[in-house]
Amino acid sequence: PRAVVHCPTTHAYFRRPPFPLKALLDAGANVCLGTDSLASSPTLSMFETLRLCGREHPWLTGARLLAMATTAPAAARILAASAPSALLSRLNPALLPAAVCLPPTSG
Length: 107
Prior knowledge:
- This protein is mostly helical.
- Helices cover 45% and strands 7% of the residues.
- The protein contains seven helices and two strands; from the N terminus they run E-H-H-E-H-H-H-H-H.
- The chain has helices at residues 8-13, 21-26, 46-56, 62-69, 71-75, 82-88, 96-100, and strands at residues 3-6, 30-33.
- Strands 1-2 form a two-stranded parallel sheet.
- Helix 3 crosses helix 4.
- It is globular and about 30 Å long.
């Protein structure tokens, strides 16, 4: 496939088997992170999506997680071409691992 979009919160909601992220990445797939609907996810927050994916796949680096939410979708033309560069110019990937490890926020 050209790209695979994974929504960890919806995947968990439907109690699917573990997402084969490593196998897809090893096969060269462009894996993107996204959100779905509030009907199948407790939040549409990309920060929560990044945290959950990081917890489920602790071998992922913060930089890889960030790329899966920004540059990977851009490469698949899921986001407007200018969005990732605008986003990345404001984010420091070195800070992402700490953000991903934060406990979930409460209501």
